[in-house]
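WARN retry 2 of 3 for item q-0093 after timeout on previous attempt; input resubmitted unchanged.
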Amino acid sequence: MDDPAEDAKDRGGDGPAPPVGSVDGRTLPRVIAVANQKGGVGKTTTTINTAAALANMGHRTLLVDLDPQANASSGLGIDVRSLDTTLLDVLIDDLSLADCIQPTTTPNLWVAPSSLRLADAEMTLYGMLSRETRLRQAVNAVRSSYDYIFIDCPPSLGLLTLNGLCAAQEVMIPIQCEYFALEGVGQLLENILKIRRSGLNPELEVSTIVCVMYDARTRLADEVVREIRNHFGALVLRTVVPRSVRLSEAPQYGLTIHAFDPRSRGAVAYRDIAQEVHDGTATTAR
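OK item q-0093 returned
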């Protein structure tokens, strides 16, 4: 199968690639894609709990679950098998995103749920017009209703992830504090540059790197964090997320860590991350 981002580059412009990262202040609403092509790196956990923490701070927040595994939806207490409409209908049948959004038990937090059939939809998308920007069109129609929109991308670099990156202004990359932490991140950064050069989303930038699964008992974790900070500089948040059983348990009950165990180290870390993310907002648009 062709690389969607490479295909987009072939159809787009050329010229030197602009810097992939920026730490300038941003205005609300902010649309943030959370992406890492590796699975099991805390991507969905980071999306859910950062979004929920911002919602608890009083910000109207939408989580768009673009991952066919639907873990973000189920982790927020949504039974995806019982839904009449999901993101699948938005991408394939042009349903309004507003018509599939569901409330959650967290005030100020809503979710556009995934579908277990979303993986099959990727092949359908390849034959559709504006296949890379269908999610962007849907998100743009509702973005003025929210302060933050988080897009939980699949652990791959396929067409669904390309839709997520084209719909976002920013990319947040969770990186685990383990061996081979940077494995695959380089390819993601290359794809972001291709998307910018192609004209599909020339303003897209990496705004946030989050170090997750930090084990304070090991020297390795400190070495990995140091390597990540040396590599990405000011893009890396000060807060690191500890490896935590409570973070793993919360989704089984359809709860965020803030509802499941608000005093846990994981809950404290994600509240601090949400504050750091919000501190990067210079002014508000509304």
